[in-house]
């Protein structure tokens, strides 16, 4: 069996590693440059942790992980609202949680697949044709090839999904927010793992990476979904956050490389089915949990592991069906959580912001934190083929 993976992010590279371990040939195409790095951090939770353990990556991930410590939230004037501690969350998760820069995670996965998996950068799909016995593919550089299966892991604006299933508008569910993230060099050290500020309809903050830089994350209420140019993005950010004090002010003054930064709508993908013939979708291309749920990378990794396990032991149609049957309940649950969290993460009123300041420290304290994380997190999935 020969499989094409369209998208070289965490989902695609995890799938490539899992297929390789099962003796299945895979090739990855990725539109970005080899050296491209994302300017934001990702969280690894129980399902991603379990996959990373099976791939032998945990110690490397720990070495590259961002420091866990206090998180301080302030109002837009810099006055403290509330705090909690990521170490308490880690303890509630029995230590199976970490945060890492996406670029570091990408590097570890790329080294994991090594020379056994061909990765073609600066390459996208031009055309695909599934004739029932295989999939003929034309690449953006004009080359053609044929594969037994094609897997789309190319993000929530998936080009493969558009080619095989239809326009993104058919499946897009905007949640009413926009977000932006990039990496900055700190003018002075943060006094916590995270320093954030919030106001009605807005939240912005910086995560300490531990090397003199920070990962920003800004989110605000905005129902528009059109793409914006780099100049328009900066204009929106300055309009929304430009008069906020440090560390937000210093982050907005720093140069932003929009080739490496993130700026987009916060949206979920909702599809009646994730496969069509010999083509199947995985990760954000199939569901997109959004950063609000904090489970996107871990769920994509678990999906990759389960899909590879099913393909190793079943005909592809049965494997696709089993993969979706096992992932769908978790995806539906986490998407629902993400929709609920949005209204709390982005305060809708001053009163709501004050109530959140009182309630969150209680929910994330020692006595209640396990119950809170169990309610808002993803249940632990059984890995490997169904029935094993």
UniProtKB/TrEMBL annotation:
Taxonomic superkingdom: Bacteria
Pfam families for the chain: FAD_binding_3
GO MF, one annotated term: FAD binding
Keyword Membrane: yes
Residue span, FAD-binding domain: 3-313
Keywords: Membrane, Transmembrane
Protein name (database record): Putative oxidoreductase transmembrane protein
């Amino acid at each position: 069996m020969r499989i094409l993976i369209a998208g070289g992010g965490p989902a695609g590279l995890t799938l490539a590693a899992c297929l390789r371990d099962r003796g299945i040939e895979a090739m990855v195409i990725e539109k970005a440059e080899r050296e491209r790095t994302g300017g934001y951090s990702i969280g690894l939770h129980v399902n991603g942790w379990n996959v990373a353990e099976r791939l032998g990556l945990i110690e490397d991930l720990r070495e590259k992980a961002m420091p866990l410590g206090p998180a301080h939230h302030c109002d837009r004037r810099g006055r403290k609202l509330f705090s909690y501690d990521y170490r308490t969350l880690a303890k509630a998760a029995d230590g199976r949680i970490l945060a890492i820069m996406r670029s570091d995670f990408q590097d570890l996965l790329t080294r994991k697949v090594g020379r056994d998996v061909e990765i073609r950068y600066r390459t996208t799909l031009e055309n695909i044709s599934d004739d029932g016995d295989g999939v003929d593919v034309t690449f953006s550089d004009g080359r053609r090839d044929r594969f037994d299966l094609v897997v789309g892991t190319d993000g929530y604006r998936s080009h493969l999904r558009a080619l095989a299933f239809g326009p993104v508008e058919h499946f897009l569910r905007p949640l009413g927010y926009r977000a932006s993230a990039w990496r900055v060099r700190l003018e002075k050290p943060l006094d916590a793992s995270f320093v954030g500020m919030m106001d009605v309809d807005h939240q912005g903050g910086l995560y300490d990476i531990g090397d003199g830089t920070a990962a920003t994350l800004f989110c605000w209420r905005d129902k528009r979904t059109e793409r914006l140019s780099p100049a328009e993005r900066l204009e929106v950010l300055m309009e929304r956050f430009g008069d906020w004090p440090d560390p937000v002010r210093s982050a907005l003054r720093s140069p932003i490389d929009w080739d490496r930064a993130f700026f987009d709508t916060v949206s979920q993908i909702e599809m009646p089915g994730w496969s069509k013939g010999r083509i199947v979708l995985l990760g954000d291309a199939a569901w997109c949990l959004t950063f609000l749920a904090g489970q996107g990378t871990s769920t994509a990794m678990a999906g990759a592991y389960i899909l590879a396990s099913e393909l190793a032991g079943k005909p592809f149609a049965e494997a696709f069906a089993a993969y979706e049957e096992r992932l769908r309940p978790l995806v539906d649950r986490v998407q629902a959580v993400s929709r609920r969290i949005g209204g709390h993460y982005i305060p809708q009123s001053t009163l709501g912001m004050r109530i959140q300041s009182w309630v969150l420290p209680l929910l994330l304290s020692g006595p209640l934190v396990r119950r809170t994380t169990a309610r808002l997190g993803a249940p632990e999935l059984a890995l490997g083929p169904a029935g094993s």
